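Record now logged underneath.
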Amino acid sequence: MRRWKVFCNDDLSLKKDALKELELISDVSYYPAIKDVLLENIHHYDAYYASAHVQTSREVLEIARNLRVIATPSTGTDHIDIKYAKEKNIDVIQLTKEIDLLNEFTATAEHAWGLLLACIRKLPAAFDCAKNGYWARQRFTGFQLYKKTLGIIGLGRLGTMMASFGNGFNMNVIGYDIVKKNINGVNQVSLDELLKSSDVISLHIHFTDDNRGFISNELFKKMKRSVVLINTSRGGIIDEDALLENLYSGHVSAAGLDVINGEWDKNLYDHPLIEYSRKYDNLVISPHIAGATVESIVGARVFLAKKLADYIIQKENII
């Protein structure tokens, strides 16, 4: 069997031997997650074990003349030019359909709930005050979730987990999905009904070309005034100019984001949402860490390494 050359720039610091099954049947080279390093070296490799911190753009794929497969330990693929990869007959292995594996990973839903609590109790700003000795109890009056309405857009794996948290907090849980679902404790409604009824809206849909800017100014206008918006999916799902406009006006009382549009830009300090968050305490942003727990990171990488090894063996017709 010919040993494939595999380029890996994913962070394996939590489990340095995560790719050991892959190393048994291929030659794996490890590089830092830097775009220039990827561009300089990818043309030598048959397979790419990808980092989500570097975009596998058309520019990269055009020079990857030997590349046959990209493996990414994620459910999202917005860091990969999927359309151009298909044109070049480069397969993409991801985790979206690995339901049994993903059901073990609750991290993203848990983080979404943490963002919600941080928003309604203004925890980051309250902590800043407390650690500076300013005991500002009256400044940080929040509201409780009991009997409030939680609207979930996207009733898949993570949306269902989020619903169970809402039920646990005695919220009225409603959901919208393009597919009819039967989920205990969730009343499935139309999108318009969800928008006008929800005190909190949490997004759990995949990012595609069709839903780029899905949460538009038109949809914001349909939301209940003082709604709280949570997004742990992808930044491109929200029209960020419209979000800022609605944060400024108070129509959106708070937002908790683990993702923003343009995460790969070198200068994020001047990103409009990040700039806003430095001035106002009703926007909480975390740096795309919702899925970053030991269990999910290690489990996904070990699983994907075996999947990529199986792919190589199959392509080489070895049983």
Summary: The radius of gyration is 21 Å. Residues 106-285 form a domain with the Rossmann fold fold (CATH 3.40.50.720).
